[in-house]
Specification:
With 229 residues, the chain is an alpha/beta fold. It has helices at 10-29, 37-46, 64-67, 84-94, 109-121, 142-151, 199-224; strands at 31-35, 51-53, 76-80, 101-102, 125-128, 155-162, 165-167, 175-177, 182-191.
Amino acid sequence: MPTDIAPITLKARILGVCLALLARFIYVSSRKRFHNKALLDAHFASGQRFIMVAWHNRNIVGPMGYVAHAPEGRVFRPLASASRDGTLAAETMRNLGVVCIRGSSSRGGTQALREMLRAAKAGADLGITPDGPRGPVYQVQAGVVAAARLTGLPILAMSYHARRHRRLGSWDRMIVPSPFTTLAYGWDGPFTVPKGAGDAEMEAVRQQVQEALLGLNDRVADLAGTPRD
């Protein structure tokens, strides 16, 4: 692991266990509603690998939009930033049975891209928070499209919302669902990037992914019965 990756402390290990248990409890205790789940099911059934993207502020139970539906043997390798928050996220995901790739556009980015390419060649699905790790909120960064071009994998957009929830005071106003609520998940895509795509084509795909994610925000808010952002 690169030396600029924040170390795994005892506190991160303990919090990772707690957050993973919380995510599972919120998910299993809540009523679920789905929009366009057939898209996800079709990719699983066909064996087609993909990059799942979801906003940073959907991280609490967002991973369940993959973990709860993936067939046995399917491998998910999401990207977690090199920061202390990224280490906590990686420990949480580890307790959900998922091993993260570490790095971001600012720290460990080159190594992370190499690991994503290796993971894709090994048959894994990838995961990226396109406005993370520092925002701006709801702004898809170019790195998502670059990863799709490099790996050749299509992008699937995913979002969720909860009827009862609170917002943290973080830069992205992280959504924390209450247990025993209604969770709504939605998916859109796929969005593909040819390996020879130029800047204009990549920007067009980036805008498509952003519009899809923003549209999903509204769709899942309506399904969950909560106000739109």
